[in-house]
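hiii so my PI (J.) wants the whole complex modelled not just the main chain, which honestly fair. so below is everything: four entries, each one labled with what it is. i double checked the lines twice but i was tired so who knows lol
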Amino acid sequence: MTNLTDQQSLDIKAAREAVQPTRRTVSKGLEDILYEAIPVLDHGFIRVIDYMGDDGAVVQAARVSYGRGTKKVSEDRGLIHYLLRHWHTTPFEMAEIKLHVKLPIFVARQWIRHRMANVNEYSARYSILDREFYIPSPENLAAQSVQNRQGRGEVVGTEEAERVLRVLRDDSQQSYDHYLDLLNQDDTGRQIRDEERGLARELARMNLSLNFYTQWYWKTDLHNLMNFLRLRADPHAQYEIRAYAQVMLDILKKWVPHTYEAFREHRLESAIFSGEAIKALRRMLAGERVEHADTKMSKREWDEFVRTLQIS
Amino acid sequence: MTNLTDQQSLDIKAAREAVQPTRRTVSKGLEDILYEAIPVLDHGFIRVIDYMGDDGAVVQAARVSYGRGTKKVSEDRGLIHYLLRHWHTTPFEMAEIKLHVKLPIFVARQWIRHRMANVNEYSARYSILDREFYIPSPENLAAQSVQNRQGRGEVVGTEEAERVLRVLRDDSQQSYDHYLDLLNQDDTGRQIRDEERGLARELARMNLSLNFYTQWYWKTDLHNLMNFLRLRADPHAQYEIRAYAQVMLDILKKWVPHTYEAFREHRLESAIFSGEAIKALRRMLAGERVEHADTKMSKREWDEFVRTLQIS
Amino acid sequence: MTNLTDQQSLDIKAAREAVQPTRRTVSKGLEDILYEAIPVLDHGFIRVIDYMGDDGAVVQAARVSYGRGTKKVSEDRGLIHYLLRHWHTTPFEMAEIKLHVKLPIFVARQWIRHRMANVNEYSARYSILDREFYIPSPENLAAQSVQNRQGRGEVVGTEEAERVLRVLRDDSQQSYDHYLDLLNQDDTGRQIRDEERGLARELARMNLSLNFYTQWYWKTDLHNLMNFLRLRADPHAQYEIRAYAQVMLDILKKWVPHTYEAFREHRLESAIFSGEAIKALRRMLAGERVEHADTKMSKREWDEFVRTLQIS
Amino acid sequence: MTNLTDQQSLDIKAAREAVQPTRRTVSKGLEDILYEAIPVLDHGFIRVIDYMGDDGAVVQAARVSYGRGTKKVSEDRGLIHYLLRHWHTTPFEMAEIKLHVKLPIFVARQWIRHRMANVNEYSARYSILDREFYIPSPENLAAQSVQNRQGRGEVVGTEEAERVLRVLRDDSQQSYDHYLDLLNQDDTGRQIRDEERGLARELARMNLSLNFYTQWYWKTDLHNLMNFLRLRADPHAQYEIRAYAQVMLDILKKWVPHTYEAFREHRLESAIFSGEAIKALRRMLAGERVEHADTKMSKREWDEFVRTLQIS
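here's the output for the full assembly
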């Protein structure tokens, strides 16, 4: 499913089998999955390539300690919750993770907007991309939302879905066929027209569409990983990048269980209430009945306020 | 050529006409071209939207002065050369520029790798892209280089060029036709099929190819602008991004003439010699005849060394 | 009070008087105070040296528009609130400000932790610092807090305050006397001992204490300025840096009134409620009486929860 | 010499003894010294706390490979030299190192200017600093340079050195005595005056001088570590920070031997020649006799040019 070649599978297997002793902090959860390709979408994957530190690295840095820096589990857990709740974010910058990701170009374009990370991308100036493109599954084919200009509405009907998928698939195949033609080579890498050289790779690639897969090494620290997940695991994020964020949440859980728990509690499941929202809350808790018109919140903010508090 | 709509031209004209007094440093060179669309490639442009500081801001910061911080022109010029030559880069971070750029997506993908900048890109999740794609002019259609895996070789022949351009043009048109079809609208924005809603914009866009134009606001400081130009105005950069860098070099010259001059002298026209290269140089200056085999330089480094020094 | 020399005052006056026309966005509020030294603490100041953009630059970037990008004031204001509330922070990176700040070294050490800014500091390797050190006013002399290891408790008594201030003042004077002695010069810059050269400046400075004043040029964007203010205008921040943040809040208000209002509403006066806090809120709004023991919040979080909602 | 307490030594010993298996890349050179305190100056140290990757991580990222990514040693070495020589710096961002550093505050103030790193510093708002301050050894006591405003000249004479050291030592001791007095505690942590609480720690610390030791956890990637070393291992850097850079160079050598070698060759021992310098070189190599007056180089640049090439 992740389309690994035999050679790639062998490389991964070999890397997994080479075990050595270390004095560093070891994360059991990540060692289990190290180097393995976790499938995402139809041809994508995430592989954990390396990591530095774990929950202990966070408390060790917060305490600027000489040893491992960890005390009793309950104290460490409490400290991590406290740090995250109060936005003391620098200790979370002390743990680091490196991923190998295969992803459609339009997802890569959203992803790269997170600048606090290190990236090495597979170069289509230098190499030739594979015939691999993303085609959504029918249940992810949604119409444009009516309420929200930036979002999806209802899933499209079966017949329409078939038509859409046929267009995407045909155009992608043709786009790749012509890419090879411009490069003057066939799928096996053999030259098509003897008499001439192919077009420069850096030019030919412009004929590929945004659903083609690219890949990169991506490295970031725990603080910035959580920033990424706060935005990209959010229901407002586009489904395709959310699929990657979902896998990364699982990785986070295996890597730093206390931080993961605190992140769920104080970021993913939390809500920010504005000054006006807090005033309304105080009145409501004092027994007053408060309507939108009684507040200075915008309609949009009020709707979210009502939804979060599950009041009707 | 830059395909501005009437409304866009009017907006630019109105912005240019609103002149106000300011106590800030004013760059005559940039005021002249402010807001204007300078054409790049077939449909792209660069517009200078705003700027902060000039050559004087560099010396003012280097001197942490109370007034404008500038002394005699010759002293300021000397200081700027000195700072740049010795990689004292922080004073150059004190001037800032903001551009509005329209560029093909594959160029945007290279450009965004420069992380030390602020970016707001036109959103294809939210809005619909125009029927605008980059088609190279025949003299920029080059074959893959034989020596250099990442580069262009000879320009392709006329007949072959015609074939290549036809493929690129036809695929781009079809790619956009189908994009509109997926969105269920025609070029004028009218619905095509009454009975159904179009596909979500965030999905439909994946059918577009990498030569379609996007646009963004891009802001960076003078130091990072020079970093960008050092890499992207270089002959090894891809022609298409170099076309933008070339226009930005002109902008740099209008904005900060002393810094521009120092940048040419100490970056663009400079060369770095390694420890081994310096040893070779010393022997050569002492009258010795030195061949590659007499040094520890790699073949590649030696070739560059010979080329830079124009020795045969 | 800000201890400007005559020459410095003249430099500032001259800079203020040079007015020129510009096509750029002009902030009336900042032009009024441009270059002026706004006093902070006993000898410090903040001066606005330059700026780029205003509220309009935020909406212009959010809309990637061709003209000024602003529409009706109410729409612009709504957009700014929306962006800030939803943490769409990149448009706020499109406005920039540059300050000249004079501040005690121990404040500078906290300040510099905000890395997303550009800094040029007065060099004590190169130049000689002035006899200027910070002495708190008696009402800011607080005892160590008993509840909070990182904070101040009650103001110290008059007699004790006098003793403390005498120690600080005497040590600072002596520290500076010896600094000059090591440099072999007196307050007027004249050599004390003819026969010898003074100690290198980069060494002599180590004898100065952390309350001595330094100064720097500091430049950041609107987004990062708000990040700074969110942390440093907070009651938990040390009084001395808060004094600077307070002045910067006034500057923010003059510069970008809509953003300032949204910042107050959605950052300064807002509160984050964790998943558990929201569960408790829902139960309370449904009429249930909820005690700390009924929740999974830590004692500390519960106390803040109660305080924010003003429930007893 | 590094003044570790018994508890600290035990903590370090315990951390070193806990060895576990890992699938990650292991650097033999760093494992040997992991956690150990390497002395710097009179009371400072550097401890390697953690690391991620090695030379192999650089080539793995440059090749975006599935396995370890390394080929033959000679190819890997060649690639690393090539990448460094051509400023392809992103692969070097893929290896990371974390240090625990104890250093004088005036050194910390220079160090922190390198923003591309993560820092957690020991908090003097929260905790009490130890009676540890830096006193230079006599051979590092230099007079102010006459040629260079930012630098040291000759070493001061024995008698004068004794006087200087006495001033520094006495003032530091008194500074700390009064710090404790303000805190109302003695060296053992016991209260001095029963009737009153001590001054808040965040205030009392301002009486300490800049030679007192602080400590922090500092983490950066290989690319930024080399940037730091290029500037701080340079002869123009202040001796005290150079002492740390020197130890870090040894660490670099143990960690990534190929990168270290390439760094020496293409950074530390390299020189940049400006456009004018290259023109001069070409003429000299063609047999012409070139004087300063025959070029457009500044006097300063010419002097460096002559020194680098060892021509008289």
